[in-house]
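Task 17 of the worksheet. Students: predict the tertiary structure of the chain below and write it out as structure tokens. Keep your answer in the requested format; marks are given for formatting as well as content.
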Amino acid sequence: MAGGVNRKISAASARAHTRRAKQNSSFQLPAGIFKTALVALVIGLSAWAYQAIQPPPSKICGSPDGPPVTGPRIKLRDGRHLAYQEHGVPKDNAQHKIVYLHGIDSCRHDAVIPNFLSPETVKDLGIYVVSFDRPGYGESDPNPKRTVKSMATDIEELADQLGLGHRFYVIGFSMGGQVIWSCLKYIPHRIAGAALVAPVVNYWWTGIPSNLSSQAYSQQLQPDQWAVRVSHYTPWLTYFWNTQKWFPGSSVLAQSIDCFSDQDKEILPKLQKREPYAGQVRQQGEFESIYRDMNVGFGTWEFSPLELENPFPNNEASVHVWHGDEDRMVPVLLQRYIAEQLPWIHYHEIPGAGHLLPLADGMCETIVKALLTDG
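Model answer:
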């Protein structure tokens, strides 16, 4: 047939042609899309991680969405408020005026010394005590700029506004006891005497031998070792670490029974009186209360207590440290060493006592009488 060409196509050629057609028609991803997707994934995970480690904002007492103010407060120079509670004889009739500092996860109502001191002793010695919510606790405003020094200036300003006079006593328990070192460093001229009861020790204070610090550190429960390590090295992770669900956070804050000595366990029923106000302790938020406490207490300090010189060289006041040799929260090894390095400290080690030693029968009487009649 004119103009026609007969061509025979083999089956193999036909299959090859079909494969090429399919290959040419397959979907092609734009160049670099995997790199772009990886970058997007990293950004997304970073955004999630950032949100996860951010603590929720504080609910300030007295603000529209915050808890109510139920007790007296003073206003500090920087605008913050400190809530306080007065105990004992009337201030104007007092022979001895004491500022009491509560421990971690506590508030002004946890005034162990006045709460467990006999009325007879209070009256006979003319004792007035003021306890206050440390920043972020109870009804005291948080202090995001809190430092070791700022606690001492807060105490001094509280004393001035309440008219406690030029000199007053300070007693602190646990983390509150640790704060007393700040008073001895920055406002010793205002201190008539000081008692540190089971004070928390920072494992990174200069002057503590590394082998001794490591030995004491290893005596903590494993979750607490991690919790204090995080608060020291990565304080911005403290809230996340103690609230995430994969690994256990601080067993102290969780009030694990393993943190208490045998004597502590016998004393625990005395803490039932906290139930009516326990909800007030963290009501403004956990970060600016308990976790700020950890970050400051176990952070890098502006000074080391072991470097302090005797603030009362003429015996115008005395400093007492009380500690139980069965304390499972603050290893006694470090307290002994600090007392050895500071010979002007009156060190009292109580055999068989745990961290709750001031709640043991008769201990408040002993602590207060030693403070007020010595120096």
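Marker's comment: The CA atoms of residues 138 and 353 lie 29 Å apart. The beta strands are 73-75, 81-88, 96-101, 127-132, 168-173, 191-197, 319-324, 345-350.
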